[in-house]
Every structure is written in structure tokens, then in C-alpha cells.
Amino acid sequence: MKKVKKIAPANGLRAEASLTHVLGKNERVEDLVDECADELSTVNAGLKRELVSGEKMPGVENALEKSELIENKVQDASEELAEVNLALKAEVQERHALEEKLATVTKDGEDARHASLHDPLTGLPNRALFNDRLSHALAHATRHGSTLVVMFLDLDDFKKINDTHGHEVGDVVLRTVADRLRETTRNDDTVCRQGGDEFLYLLLEIRNLADIEQVAEKIINAVEAPCEIKGRDRNLSLSIKPSIGISIFPHDGSTADVLLACADKAMYRAKREKSGFFFAENLSNPD
Q1: Residues 66-78 pLDDT 10s
Q2: CATH for 127-282, among 3.90.550.10, 3.90.1150.10, 3.30.450.20, 3.30.70.270?
Q3: Do 126 and 117 meet the contact criterion of CB atoms below 8 Å apart?
Q4: Is 163 among the residues known to form the active site?
Q5: How far apart are the C-alpha atoms of 270 and 245, rounded to whole Å?
Q6: pLDDT digits (tens, 9 = 90+) for 157-171
Q7: For residues 224-253, average pLDDT
């Protein structure tokens, strides 16, 4: 006897496609069964006409009886097959509906997760996602003896923009700054909105102070570029300066909290001195 190859059960879209394939085969078989039933009916009708017009022969009568029995069985099979096909169609429709619900639930879950880890105004990672990436980066740097940098960035006199031009203009400025920070970020680095007009920057695999200074200057130049805002009744050209505090692992601290605190203090020093950026390692030096 020929062995039948077992087919592993599929799920999701594969299961739906498999059911659709089986349904297509069943419908073709149903058509063939209907054709056979029609042909048997035609043959039986011919046999009956011959028996009526000619001499009755026992063998022919027996053949006719058997043929009629087969015709009835074929018709019964056709009806059962039609019922199976209806059930299969309903199953395909139900699976399709379940797939759509699953896709919707999955998307909603992904959207909710994204919303929980990103700032709604700027689309940047939020503090929760930044903390997670910083934690992983610290573990990696500790294992491999590498360096990482935390930058704390604040926009100078941002409150004046909100007070003078309104929060809508302030939001436009924040989104513009976020886009510029995003453009200066390397693939392995992370920039997040801490809140208000504060941002955090995580730099990985930094070789020396010159590279850090180059990144800080690049950020400052990007942020300071005029922000052109077109309104219904006025156009504004605003320029804002950032202050950046910089802490380095492991020199300035070995934990996320210490590195962030050092970068925060260095940022306020940069703001007081209007220096653009300031390194935490210099905080012990006299003002």
C-alpha cells in the first residue's frame, strides 16, 4: 500500500491557505461527482427506454438496478460534499476574521509598547527607554572595558519662547530640535527627551576627548541653526543655544544614576559659563 505523507498542522495564514487549498480541491471533486451523476442518470434513462421498447432481459434489468443504486449513492455523496464545502467556507471565513483580529491586537500591542517608550511630542525615546539602553550599555562596557559617554542637554532661555510666542511655537521648536538631534545620532547611539526642554544623549565606543568634543560641537551647531516657523499671521526665525554637560564611564562614575547626576551638574556649569559644553571631570576645578 502506498504510504500517505503526513502534513504537519499549520497555523495562522498557513492554516488559512491550506484550508482554502482543500476547499478548492473539494469544489473540483464536487463538480466531478455532479458530472458523474448526470452521466449515470443519462445512461439509466437510456437503459430504461431500451427495456420499454424491447425484450426484457434479466441481466440488463440487474445492471439497471445496480446503476440506479450507484446513481443514488453519487447524488448522496454530492450533497454531503456540498455540505462539507459550505462548512469549509465558513471555517475559512472564521479563520480570516481571527487573523484580522490577531493582526489588530498585535498592532495595538506594538503601538502601546512604542507609546510607552517614546515621547509623544517629539517621537524620541523617553527616559524609560534611555535608562534601559544605558543599563545595557554599561553592562557591555563593563565586560569589555570600553568607554561610554552621557550628555545632558538643556535649551538656554527656552521659557522665554513659551512666554513670548506661546506653547504651540515652543512645541514646534522642541520638535525641530529633536529632529536635529536625531540627525546627529549614530546608529548605535541614543538621544531621548528627558522632559521639558531637556534631552539626554548616549554615545558608545568613544575613543578620546577630541571625538567627544567634536560630537558636542556638532550638536550645538545643529541646534543653534535658525528655526523658521511659518504661521497664519506671522513668520518667526528663532535661534536657541544649548548647554551640554558631559560625563564619561568609568572615569566619572560606574552607575547610571551617578553618570546622569554628573552630566546634569556639568550642564549647569556650561550654562553659567556660556561655554556650550562642560566635562564633569572638571567640576572639581574652581569656578
Answers
A1: 667 776 777 777 7
A2: 3.30.70.270
A3: yes
A4: no
A5: 7
A6: 999 999 998 999 999
A7: 90
